[in-house]
Amino acid sequence: MHATPVLSILGLLLTILAGTMMVPMMVDVVMGDPNWQAFAGAALVTGFVGVSLWLSNQHKNDRELGLKEAFLLTNGAWMLIGIFGAFPLYFSSLSLSFTDALFESVSGITTTGSTILTDIEQASYGVLIWRALLQWLGGVGIIVMALAVLPMLSVGGMQLFRTESYETADKVIPRATQLAGGIFAVYTLLTGLWWLMLSLAGMPAFDALAHAMTTLATGGYSTKTSSVGAFSSHTIELIIIAGMIVGSLPFIHYLSLARGGWQALLRDPQVRWFMMLVLIVISFIAFDLFRDGVPLYDAIRLSSFNAISILTGTGYGTANFALWGDSSLTILLICMFIGGCAGSTTCGIKMFRLQVLAANIKVQLARLLRPHAVVLAYYNDRTVPDSVMDAVMGFFYLYIVCFVILATFLGLIGLDFQTALSGAATSLSNVGPGLGDVIGPAGDFSSLPYAAKWLMCFGMLLGRLELFTVLVILNPLFWRR
């Protein structure tokens, strides 16, 4: 393994992160808040480490990035940004422990949205915009990783989206570089559009910017303790619903839309399945609420926003859905695992894997009826290779195993059944709020033991990086020559 090109790129990423810290620092300077010193100090530390890594390894990075280096770079980027992103929170006037600061930072960069802040309004404007920036940067990074990196590494069936021009792992960086520019432009344009719409809908400009960033990133960090429900606006809710759906669809299609092509988005089976699932989930929960005495309009409004928020892994809330009936809670718990489409800012199992699993079930049923027939699985009118089928089956199995192990350990730490179960689901699927009184939409994660927070940080990274990407570097074979 050649670590020098990896260290050089990680140094560059940390240098960029240090520059990004200047934004919340200037916000606090303008607002006259002394918290600007926390961002200045964190930027100096991060910048020093980043520039040192970059310069000390730059003259040695002429080697191509191989398979092992690509795995190491992907893990290192999210881990280091999570660690250094915690410094401004740790140095701020919030008086957080490093564990709490790290939890908030990792939750931000992985676009999870779980928070340990009990009174968000007490945080400075700089801290609030920093939380939003972490999720926004995590969102665009996830898109590039899903479109360029994971298909080359054949992680969890993502090779299904591999382009013919970039078949090998040593093309990861060129591919990511080519995609990053277009994706970043589209992502920024959409964020600006949602900022404008939220501002016109009556949300204050600062809140509108923060919510636009975390909506498109499907992250869910809000500037209010009561989340989006604090604004009591149906128009704002509709705009955010649209933003969460946009963030859950494959961003590669938005590049086609920018060039005038609509057909790719409309013909993508992921998109059709996702939209049908959204309608089905909303209908079931709305019926359950209406049956419990909620007026029909309110039932549709509450189910639409909160169901889409959980299904997309955003984590916003307009109601304490932990108080809803058992049927609705069961559906929401299942929705935590699903997520959106591949190539979006969402996490979870993803729609294309569910489609591949459904195709495999169809094949197995057909073989039972006609044992000697040759039956093939198809996805988007193309035959699904055995390697993709095996990868998807392995991912699904590993996802369930990781969820069970994570929930078991959270239970052993001392969390109650509902908190442990939903805490494992929300961490692994990067959703945000869990269920129950402790970590539900009306609660937060501050009261959890430190051991639980560290475990959930690992779960958030594990889910965000598609399981295999993290677990492969824990295999001793990975480090052998």
Question: Summed up, what is this model?
Answer:
The chain is 66% helix and 1% strand. The protein contains 21 helices and two strands. Strands 1-2 form a two-stranded antiparallel ribbon.
Task: Please provide a written account of the structure.
The protein is mostly helical and 481 residues long. The chain contains 21 helices and 2 strands. The chain has a two-stranded antiparallel sheet with strand order 1-2. β1 and β2 form a beta hairpin. α1 (3-20) runs antiparallel to α3 (36-58), α9 runs parallel beside α10 and α13 (269-291) crosses α14. The radius of gyration is 22 Å and the shape is globular. The termini are close together. The model has no long low-confidence stretch (mean pLDDT 90).
Secondary-structure-derived class: mainly alpha
Spatial ordering of strands, largest sheet: 1-2
- Radius of gyration equals 22 Å
The proportion of residues in beta strands is under 5%
Estimate the global geometry from the Cα principal axes: globular
- The end-to-end span amounts to 7 Å
Total E-strand runs: 2
